[in-house]
Design goal:
51% helix, two-stranded antiparallel ribbon
């Protein structure tokens, strides 16, 4: 505005040519957008303390919003990796069931014994295993060959049959010993591995002494104890024998289900192709449980976290908007004589209002930039400390800065409107 005053005074003192009489306004007298920007920014840095206090609310509000979204996205990604990793990489195929005339149910097809060899050739499949529940009938599983009638009765562990890739597919690990291999399965050896719960129940915690368990009085050598099976927690309380051993010793009729470990994101493809590979004539008779290509866990966690923290961020942002409005109003009151002088020298109410609105927008934009930057740094720093992968959408940070400018616009509208209505005579007399 000062530069505009100087140009106006110079233009007014210059001699008028004949052609100037027909022109409406000399070019040097125009109030350009550059003049508006210069005048709007001239007073922002004149009071650093007040500017800092004004920016605090906006910085906190925008920072809270951007950080909330960033933290929730990062947390959702981490939670999805930790708790949904097994589910997202597992496909389960089981025979379908149909109602019988007697009111029961019967399997519509059977899984082939060579199902693992068929499925592992598919693209996206990393490992596969067949699993079956083996009926004990009246038999029990004990750690001693003699049944003591005086001993209290205890529940017998479940008996499960599987192929050797069980732990590789389900992500379990051996606590001690080893897993049975393809040789044990081919020979139908009488060997077992125990889930951690079953081993504790049977009193077996080491295998270097070559312990055995007795299934219906028949001894089976214990090769190892496993734990950490997340996809099938029931296996931790079971005794697992090789699939061919269950066929020979317990007359197992067919596998109960196939568990497949896949590359994340290939669930729909593997689910469709595995049914065809296992039952080419009637793939519809198999029930396939496959994860979607993208897990919805991250979105649900992000939404739940955002609902709470976005409200808090909105409250802080509202406080920042009120801070900008109060400071802008105080600035208008303090500059009433200046506003009156400018009005007296020819400034329009629109020009006065534009100056204060632009000033508020610049303050809001500055607060938004600082808040978004601090939020992104906070998310990245926190993720680095926790050894997580930071997830921050760059458009969220850009939107935070733009939102700060919008807040400044809304906050500065009323003070600017009031400044534009100040009459020159009233202002020069010291009124407001």
């Amino acid at each position: 505005m000062v530069r505009w005053f100087r140009r106006r005074r110079a233009a007014a003192s210059a001699p008028l040519a004949s052609h100037d009489l027909v022109t409406q306004v000399p070019r040097a007298d125009r109030y350009t957008a550059a003049d508006l920007l210069v005048e709007a920014t001239a007073d922002i840095g004149s009071r650093p303390g007040r500017l800092a206090m004004t920016l605090v609310g906006t910085v906190l509000g925008i920072g809270a919003l951007v950080a909330t979204i960033g933290f929730s996205q990062t947390a959702a990604h981490q939670i999805a990796r930790q708790f949904d990793a097994v589910k997202a990489t597992q496909v389960v195929v089981a025979p379908g069931e149909a109602r019988t005339s007697s009111g029961g149910s019967a399997a519509t097809t059977r899984l082939p014994w060579d199902g693992v060899d068929r499925v592992v050739r598919l693209v996206g499949v990393e490992a596969a295993t067949l699993i079956a529940d083996v009926s004990l009938g009246t038999d029990t599983i004990t750690a001693v060959p003699v049944n003591d009638p005086s001993a209290p009765a205890t529940a017998s562990p479940d008996l499960i049959a599987s192929t050797p890739g069980l732990l590789d597919v389900l992500g379990g690990h051996l606590v001690t010993g080893r897993m049975f291999d393809a040789g044990h399965d081919e020979r139908a050896d009488r060997v077992v591995v125990l889930g951690a719960g079953a081993a504790e129940r049977l009193g077996i915690n080491r295998v270097d002494s070559q312990p055995s368990v007795f299934i219906g009085g028949v001894p089976y050598a214990v090769l190892g104890v496993f734990d950490g099976v997340q996809a099938r927690g029931d296996l931790l309380d079971a005794v697992v024998v090789p699939m061919r051993t269950a066929r020979h010793e317990r007359a197992l009729g067919a596998p109960g289900q196939m568990q497949i470990r896949i590359v994340m994101g290939t669930g729909p493809q593997v689910g469709e192709q595995s049914a065809i590979a296992l039952s080419p004539d009637a793939p519809e008779n198999l029930e396939v449980s496959a994860p979607s290509a993208r897990s919805d866990l991250g979105d649900s966690v992000s939404a739940d976290v955002n609902v709470v923290f976005l409200v808090l961020g909105g409250i802080v942002l509202l406080a920042g908007a009120l801070g900008i409005a109060n400071v802008t109003m105080l600035n208008v009151i303090e500059r009433v004589p200046e506003i009156g002088l400018r009005r007296a020298l020819g400034s329009t109410g629109r020009q006065i209002a534009s100056q204060f609105v632009v000033e508020s927008i610049i303050i809001g934009l500055l607060g938004g930039l600082l808040g978004a930057a601090l939020a992104v740094l906070s998310v990245v720093g926190f993720a680095a400390v926790q050894q997580w992968t930071p997830v921050v959408n760059p458009w969220i940070a850009v939107g935070g800065a733009v939102l700060g400018a919008v807040v400044g616009l809304v906050a500065g509208w009323f003070p600017a409107r009031r400044a534009s209505r100040i009459e020159p005579v009233t202002a020069l007399r010291g009124g407001s």
